[in-house]
Task: structure prediction
Amino acid sequence: MMDATTNQAPIVITGGCGFIGCNLADRLATRGDHVLILDNLVRAGVRENAQWLKSRHGDRITITVGDIRDPITVIDSVKQAKAVLHLAAQVAVTSSLDSPVDDFEINARGTLNMLEAVRLHNPGAPVLFASTNKVYGRLIGDDEITRTGQRYQPISDALAHGVSERAPLDLYSPYGCSKGAADQYVHDYARVYGLKTAVLRMSCIYGPRQFGNEDQGWIAHFVLSALRGSPLTIYGDGCQVRDALYVADAVDAWLAVLDQIDTTRGHVFNLGGGPSNAISLLELIDQIGQLSGPVKYSFSEWRPGDQPWYVTDISALARATGWRPRTSFADGLRGLHGWLAGRFAEQRGQEALA
Result:
């Protein structure tokens, strides 16, 4: 392999065949970077994403099938990397409740494997970590929110611009604990060992190449269910609010942090669409209905750790890098709906021919 100091050294993306990872890989390869993807290829849709990347970029994309729980595989992948974008993870709260040990081994131990590999074998390589807003826990109590129309909003004016990085961590659910532990390890390896690390605590990212199951990409799951005519289950009352960020804008943010690592190193950033891209579940259903027709849904009990309201304060990232979201939620939803509709129609055509 080539030396990490050359322009030909690869940028490593763990979980690079997943939704955000493949969009990052596509953008990096398009701008001329070589990309090495480390992915175990076990999740739904990732093999399709792998084929898509190879068809677009050929030898500029290298895919290594492996698991971040294997330290030797991780070392071999990162020891000559120009940078590491660490997105490989177990990402479902429900799966963490069913298998908390597996959740820990993937999210916490896998991240520590990555950090140690970089520290011992390639300490000059920047490491960006995909964290989550779930590290903040439920965030606010029932007595701290009010319902307006189809959405909740906080009573306190202090949250008018969203949740900042100053919010205390309150790890909730095994998933929140494993991602929170990894988040803090990545942050601390910058302070203690001087590594060039940065943490991005992401809110809801959505867009093309997201295949939309219930626990991994809820906006895509809602859209795909509507296209199929399948009923949705709403956990809670549907007034819970999230801010949403289109994946192309998320990629812009990741690359802004990476390209300005000399000033972003050691920092934790909340990454989302901000207050202007906040939406409740019921409001989303109404918008999808305008694109696909009426959406069937029913209600169920709240799940452990579900946040009634979470909106990202993106000002720290904006100040540090100049980044801002460029895609409105209405435009982004149309983009996702168009991509999923085309893919769904293609699948039905193939089934009809079978």
Observations:
- The CA atoms of residues 207 and 336 lie 5 Å apart.
- The first strand starts at residue 11 and ends at 14.
